Amino acid sequence: MEDGRLKLRNLIDIEDLSLEEWQELYALAREIIANPKNYAQALQGDVMASLFYEPSTRTNFSFQTAMLRLGGSVFGFADPNSSSTSKGETLKDTVKMVSSYADVIVMRSPKEGAAKAASLYSEVPVINAGDGGHMHPTQTLTDLTTIAMLRGGIENLNVGLCGDLKNGRTVHSLIKALAKFPGIRFYLIAPRDLAIPGYMVEYMKMRGTPFVEVTNLEATMPQLDVLYMTRIQRERFTDPLEYDRLKGVYVLTRSKLRTAKKDMLIMHPLPRVDEIAQDVDDDPRAVYFDQARYGMFARMALLMKMVEQGRKRPEPQIIGREPRCRNKNCITRTELYLPPLLKAEGTCCAFCDKEL
Ligand code: CP
Predict the structure, then answer these.
(1) 3 alpha carbon to ligand 1 midpoint, in Å?
(2) Is residue 299 within 8 Å of 65, Cβ to Cβ?
(3) Spatial distance between the Cα atoms of 146 and 130, rounded to a whole number of angstroms
């Protein structure tokens, strides 16, 4: 990092962001929170493209308001059927077009690896606003900002992650980020059928991050400094009966908080369905609505840093061929021209992280 500029050109996976870069972003977010009016023209004349191929309230609106509060402009879609995607246009062609109109692209997709695929063809920085059940790095910036603002730092914390740890992309990104901080221990609270994926277990083992996998929320509660609740991700289930069997498996109620620490943070990326009862909202430990607001400031800081990267012609890419990633939801299964990129010494797909 030189002169406060991030080395990172795109934000696809939170792992790509160094601790030093996080500190730079957080320092800027804090300044914006303290003096928002000082930044009202920071991105005047710049344009953000917002490509949402999947529903969103917080991420879409907080990015839009972040750009508007910085004096920039926004265009895009929240329904891909209103774009030429519905006529069969490839992601590559859409991105090549959009990147010639915009200064930064924010993209959400139900396909894992979609933002990485977009970044290969974009002339401007691409920000992953969620790709299938894979990653959600800007939710993690939101979460880190919330913890740092409300606890004064991120270290020596017992963090409970509860719910759908298999499909919850916010959890996968958050683990990767928190594992870089000292003294973090994870309590992974999930039924066996929604346990954290193998590649995330390998990640924690590889980094030497302490973690335990448990099923009982109440028994774990007294240990926790942060409880991060998540929704059972109905849209990721192929069998509706399986969803019906697992929904409602964890419901946090006020009475279950009796054994929790007095300063525990109750977080949730939202939206919630029924995993946090309404009677928890007024508990001073419940910070999930504050968390969503911190997300807007974190995204303001990120947009400023990303726009700073400027325009650059993408490298030529080879045209894809067999074998393809086995993950049916990987972007390489539908955008067949994508190069067959690998990571982890050729053992994983570089788009979706799944083992080959
Ligand atoms: N937390 C989050 O990603 O919410 P949305 O799906 O509403 O954007």
Answers:
(1) 32
(2) no
(3) 19
Question: Which one, of 134, 172, 196, 168, lies nearest residue 331 by Cα?
Answer: 134
Q: Where do we find the tokens 């594992």?
A: 179
Examine the pLDDT at 248 and tell me if it is beyond 90.
no
The residue whose two tokens read 């004064």 is: 152
Checking if the pLDDT of 205 tops 90, the result is yes
Cα end-to-end distance, the chain, whole Å: 33
Q: How do residues 25-83 score in pLDDT, each as one tens digit?
A: 999 999 999 999 999 999 999 999 999 999 999 999 999 999 999 999 999 999 999 89
**Residue 249 bridge partners (DSSP):** none
Instruction: Choose among 206, 149, 159: nearest CA to 186.
Output: 159
Query: Nearest CA to 331 among 13, 50, 117, 129?
Result: 117
Model pLDDT, residue 336: 94
d(CA 182, CA 207): 12
E strand segments, the chain: 47-52, 73-77, 104-109, 126-131, 157-162, 184-189, 211-214, 226-229, 265-267, 342-343, 348-349
Per the residue annotation, which of 5, 37, 69, 87 is the catalytic one?
87
Write down the catalytic residue from 69, 111, 134, 136: 136
Report whether pLDDT(2) > 70. Answer: no
Structure tokens at 95: 């991105």
Please report the sign of the dihedral spanned by the C-alpha atoms of residue 2, residue 297, residue 295, residue 223.
positive
Nearest to 217 by CA among 276, 160, 167, 283: 160
- Out of 14, 59, 108, 288, give the residue to mutate to test ligand 1, the one with the largest number of ligand atoms within 8 Å of its CB: 59
Q: Do you know the residue count of the chain?
A: 356
CB atoms within 10 A of CB 236: 16
- Report which of 57, 68, 115, 31 is spatially closest to residue 292, judged by C-alpha positions: 57
Q: Is 254 a catalytic residue?
A: no
- Residue indicated by tokens 């740092």: 148
Which amino acid, one-letter code, is at 212? V
Total-model pTM: 0.94
Instruction: Verify whether ligand 1 is closer than 6 Å to residue 248 (CB atom).
Output: no
